[in-house]
User: Fold these one by one.
Assistant:
Number 1:
Amino acid sequence: MRIDIPEGQHPIEYVWGDLVPGIGMAAANFSLSVYAHTTLGLREFEAARLRVAQINGCIFCLDWRTDRDGETVEDEFPEAVTEWRTTDRFDERTRLAAEYAERYCLDHHGLDEDFWERMTARYSQVEIVELTMSIGSWLAFGRLNHVLGLDSVCVLPGH
């Protein structure tokens, strides 16, 4: 871990809350909002989230599964996300979500007209903005936790 955590302190609460309360609490609220207010289907949401986690290398994010009313993706889903280009387990929306996450993280300048034609054929403008904000949240905060070494001790408060 790259940040000294006082003994007895919860690492995430300390770094996100105590060290930078004005920024950290806003970031935490944004991070939680993408889960609380999403309108995206679970599979496309998780395909994008897991692809970002795979790129970031965030240990906690790779292990996390979004739960919607007791429903999660199947155990083999992360492998399908890794193979999003060729897997037969994804419909086009799920495949596009994984592709968008990867390209957003690794080559956002390369999002060309062909991609946007495919994306707008399957997703509404509202869904595209929501997915973009979600991917941005996961990229920023998963990477922050990994870079600071928090991802190996990360447990969401209350979980």
Number 2:
Amino acid sequence: MAGFRSLARQVRDPRCDLALRRYSLRKCLERFAPYGHRATWDHLCGRAGFGPEDRSPDPARLVAALVELEQARAVWLTYEADFAERRKKEKHDGLRRPGSVDDWHRMTWGGFGVAWCDDPRLHPREPLADVLHRLISALERRPGSVCPVCDGERLVWRHGLDHEPSAGPVCADCGILVPRPVLTEGALASARRERLLMSA
């Protein structure tokens, strides 16, 4: 099974036919898809200027989508390396029990669904690397009461998400499943109340 870097080489290789180059970009999303496969694909297509169903997009646009994905992956890989180093030091210092950020991190290892978007058409519009920077910064500071990606205040608790965890606070503005560790207990309670009001 090809890894991310070998798939990326195929996307860039002008000797490969266009169908293979597009297919290889789609396969990259099996290795790294911050919003989930469908939402990340929709995002990349929109930002690079080709349709999700376009079978023969301009090769330069495919490469532009790949570059955005690679930049975001570099941000995530740096975070994962820093995370692993921190956990190693904590274990050395006798802190064996992981915290809530660690629980969240285990569910997103490899970068799949880091900023899960259950609705593939509702996701942040900014470059993926910017979104991940904002999310990582939020994980490294005290919890807040708004979406760490768009500063949206409309957080709604949703059940039945196609992700793990299958329930949690979703930003009604940018569509991400907000990691619980970045929100205060008050913000989480408010999101749960919002769900109850919507279902009443």
Number 3:
Amino acid sequence: MIRELADYERAPQEAKATEEQLREALFGAHPAVFALIAEETGGAGEPGGPVGFALWFRNFSTWTGTHGVYLEDLYVTPRARGGGHGKALLAELARICVERGYARFEWSVLDWNEPAIGFYAALGAEPMDEWTVRRLSGEPLRELAAQAMGTAVTSDSLSEATSLSN
């Protein structure tokens, strides 16, 4: 389904995660991400197999002082769309937020994905027009990281950071 999502988002070359990487991220000693799976019901109430997923992780708001949920990916197979699976996945993530006292549930949507934008708007999700996502990857990421090589955080810089936050 990850590859299907990458195809839908017009970026199949970007889907490089291996099964081992996903297994470690989801089920390793220190899970970094979490997933919900939507399944269709088969005959006699038996599961009919996976038809969608939501991959998410916790974020943190310094303004609210609480964690939140960031939805990295939401995907429902084309044949199962319209069956309520996407809404059920989002509702479960909203339930997790409320139950755990998280203040925010956020995600990004491609600006050309009109069906998703309409779906999210119908749920009451507000666009964050004043925010623009920025990303460092590849060579620019390595170049910036190289600027930190060999530098250490000193107690002076920690004291300065601590005083700024007070």
Number 4:
Amino acid sequence: MNFLAHLLLSGSPATTPHYADRVVGNFAAEAVRGRAGLLAYPVAVQQGIQLHRFIDSFTDTHPVVRRSTARLRAAGLGKWAGVVADVGYDHLLARDFARYHPDPTEPLPAFAQRLYALLHERRHELPERLQEMLHYMRQHDWLTGYAQPAGFQKALQGLARRVPSAAVLATGAAAFLAELPAYEQDFQEFWPELRAAVDTISQVSNKA
């Protein structure tokens, strides 16, 4: 899953112990490697890093996600199929955010601004490259932009420019949107299972 899903799955300010720490860890995990990197953070932030890793592992091994990535490989995305699926799922999550957000009173733009503010306040705790990325994410409102096909396409085009040998990602949005009903079905099947798995491990973590 991509940024929006990870941030949403971090929990709720009202119900999640050490919520801000968990958000920071979940976001920082994009650039935290190995056990040494994990242990460099306070325990509450470590829980967010571990949550991120759990989400990635659950997603990468789930049969529904593998169905999506197989379809994208067949469309010519090769080894980048998983990246397109991650960003494509964020597109579907953003597009129908009210359906998936546990708090129906908080629309996507408000959620995005709240999370940008939280992460900006604690940006000094993030790896350096994420501090820079957060600046652009906030400035250009990536999270809200995912809701539109143009924002989805722009996200993948940006990755295609930044990552060596990833030029094919520039075609990823078109491939995903060409078979959109199939990916919508995949996401609608997958998201409740991911949500339930995260809720289960979060309950265990909160009791620890």
